[in-house]
């Protein structure tokens, strides 16, 4: 996979209007998942970060939230991994851990629901970043009540096609 700014153009917010409300999964979900999983196996993350469009953090954060639901719905660790990559990349752009917290809570719960140790998965993805993106490991050190999805305004639910985390506010 040859990566360029054009590869990551699909993360431009203008190309993703109403993406968060789209049916799950959508074609865009697959495109983002495949891009992220391919990018981290073939490219240094510093290069990936330099290729991201301005404000891509918004789209990456939405994808991370959607990936948590897809991981549970499909019992798929790849979806979980892609969501964690998206959350860490989003944070690398925004720099604000508060923006990442809701998606990380969903991904943490998704890991539990599909029988994967959240600590191991979060730490594993953090290592892909060489430990520089501490938002993942910092989330793990939160008090248990600060990691639950309800504290972030979510609950587990159904969107008529299967499991989906839903906002409860």
Percent of sequence in beta strands: 5-15%
**Biggest sheet overview:** 2 strands, antiparallel
Helix content range of the residues, please? 55-70%
Strand numbers in spatial order across the main sheet:
1-2
Shape: globular
C-alpha Rg (nearest Å): 15 Å
| Low-confidence region ranges | none
What class would the helix/strand composition place it in?
mainly alpha
Distance between the termini: 40 Å
SS element count, helices: 7
Number of strands: 2
- The quaternary structure here is single chain
Mean pLDDT metric:
93
Number of domains: 1
Task: Please render the helix and strand layout as text.
Blueprint: H1 27-42, H2 45-51, H3 56-74, H4 77-94, H5 97-113, H6 118-128, H7 135-140, E1 154-158, E2 163-167
Helix pairs in contact: 1-4, 3-4, 3-5, 4-5, 4-6, 5-6
Please tag this protein with its features.
single chain; 169 residues; mainly alpha; two-stranded antiparallel sheet; 7 helices; globular
Description:
The protein is mainly alpha-helical and 169 residues long. It has one domain (7-167). 56% of the residues lie in helices and 6% in strands. It is built from 7 helices and 2 strands. The chain has a two-stranded antiparallel ribbon. It is globular.
Summarize the structure.
The chain is mainly alpha-helical. The chain has 7 helices and 2 strands, in the order αααααααββ. Strand 1 and strand 2 form a beta hairpin.
């Amino acid at each position: 996979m040859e990566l360029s700014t054009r590869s990551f153009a699909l993360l431009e917010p203008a190309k993703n209007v109403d993406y968060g409300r789209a049916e799950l999964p959508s074609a865009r979900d697959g495109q983002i998942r495949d891009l992220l999983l391919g990018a981290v196996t073939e490219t240094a993350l510093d290069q990936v970060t330099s290729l991201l469009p301005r404000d891509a953090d918004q789209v990456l954060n939405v994808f991370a939230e959607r990936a948590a639901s897809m991981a549970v719905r499909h019992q798929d660790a790849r979806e979980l991994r892609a969501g964690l990559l998206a959350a860490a990349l989003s944070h690398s752009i925004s720099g604000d851990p508060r923006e990442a917290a809701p998606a990380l809570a969903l991904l943490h719960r998704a890991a539990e629901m599909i029988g994967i140790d959240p600590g191991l998965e979060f730490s594993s993805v953090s290592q892909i970043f060489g430990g520089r993106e501490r938002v993942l490991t910092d989330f793990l050190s939160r008090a248990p009540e600060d990691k639950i999805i309800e504290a972030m305004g979510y609950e587990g639910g159904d969107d008529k096609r299967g499991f989906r985390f839903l906002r409860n506010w």
